[in-house]
Specification:
The chain is of the alpha+beta class and about 375 residues long. The chain has nine helices and eleven strands.
Length: about 375
């Protein structure tokens, strides 16, 4: 069974010795981020990822998510309890503003923690990953009322988020999208259309799911310059913050994928769902790019995280697999063959992977300091 051990020592070395986090103590969030505090956070994250998330990785891929006749989706065995522990640990709000219930720590600390989460269980990690991107978009483009309504519960982890761009006929060229947003007398919009490949689009982990949806308002330019962005919650939110009626958005199916089956990648159907404009009319791409740029950093981190866990398991395999003899003479003298780690080319490949991981980690953490 694959294993994972979080590279806490390497992360601490990069943060403290390479990047010198103490030099940024005059910036918001860094004053309280002492080496001891950050080290303790990384150690606790490592325990959670190694002991809770990693054992669920195979379970999630084998079971996958299950869509029911009513359009609801259940996640694999253990995911719901793991997410409950994730929320109770306060991991969602690690680097978001204290004003909305976050801990206000630097983004770079959240990046280190996120790498562990992805290595341990990428399918699970995508649920909070999409939510954090949605939070970032609302923080920048949302009105004060929208921030007050959605951010505290999303940063707490009680509500999750998604990004809805792709449609059956268009993905890269979003100017072709057909999802419509009809203005209503009360200032809301009725959203109608179909979105595909929506990660974490429907599941049983959170009380509510806050969808950020790109759509066109009638009369706007029928191209990329006529796209607006809307908040479309799975459940409407009452004025007192409680959940109200179910919105008209449903999961039509779960996409077939080669892997990450533990994440519910959905086809979402919007049938006159109530939506709320976020940002300016026809400026949806500008608003969505806040989330998309966060996703780009996240995808780069996914590459590093998967490379790290692949390297760790390759080392274990290379020490266990017996094949041939070392050029310098038998190393496993009591056996008929030596472990393949003694062969120069195998060692070269392992060291190349390790060098890539250490360099990529330094680059990822440095990039996070720029955000």
């Amino acid at each position: 069974m694959p294993t994972y051990s979080a590279p806490v020592r390497d992360m601490n070395f990069i943060l403290n010795e390479v990047l010198g986090m103490e030099r940024y103590a005059n910036l918001p969030g860094f004053a309280d981020a002492s080496a001891d505090l950050v080290g303790a956070i990384l150690e606790e994250s490592a325990k959670f990822c190694e002991n809770v998330l990693a054992p669920l990785n195979q379970v999630g891929d084998r079971e996958g998510c299950t869509r029911h006749e009513d359009g609801s989706v259940t996640t694999p065995t253990g995911f719901k309890d793991a997410y409950k522990q994730f929320v109770e640990g306060g991991w969602m709000g690690l680097n978001f503003p204290e004003e909305y219930g976050g801990q206000g720590l630097p983004h770079v600390v959240g990046t280190a923690v996120e790498e562990m989460r992805i290595s341990a269980n990428m399918a699970f990690g995508m649920y909070p990953g999409l939510t954090q991107g949605a939070i970032s978009a609302i923080l920048v483009e949302g009105s004060d009322e929208q921030k007050k309504t959605y951010l505290p519960r999303m940063i707490e982890g009680a509500w999750t988020g998604t990004m809805n761009l792709t449609e059956p006929h268009c993905g890269t060229d979003l100017g072709l999208l057909r999802t419509k947003a009809e203005p209503q007398d009360d200032g809301t919009y009725k959203i109608t259309g179909t979105k595909i490949f929506i990660s974490a689009g429907e599941h049983d982990l959170s009380e509510n799911i806050i969808h950020l949806v790109l759509a066109k308002i009638p009369g706007s330019p029928d191209n990329i310059k006529g796209i607006s962005l809307f908040i479309v919650p799975k459940y409407l939110v009452n004025e007192d913050g409680t959940l109200g009626a179910r919105n008209a958005v449903t999961c039509g199916s779960i996409e077939e994928k080669m892997g990450i089956h533990g994440n519910s990648t959905c086809v979402l159907n919007y049938d006159g769902a109530t939506g709320y404009l976020i940002g300016e009319i026809d400026k949806g791409m500008r608003a969505m790019f806040i989330m998309m740029n966060a996703a780009r950093l996240g995808v780069g981190l996914q590459g590093l995280a998967q490379s790290e866990v692949a390297y760790q398991n390759a080392v274990i395999y290379a020490k266990d697999r017996l094949q041939g003899r070392a050029l310098t003479g038998p190393k496993n003298k009591d056996g008929k063959a030596d472990p393949i780690i003694v062969h120069p080319d195998v060692r070269r490949m392992l060291m190349q992977a390790r060098a890539f991981n250490e360099g990529a980690r330094a680059l990822a953490l440095w990039a996070s300091l720029q955000v």
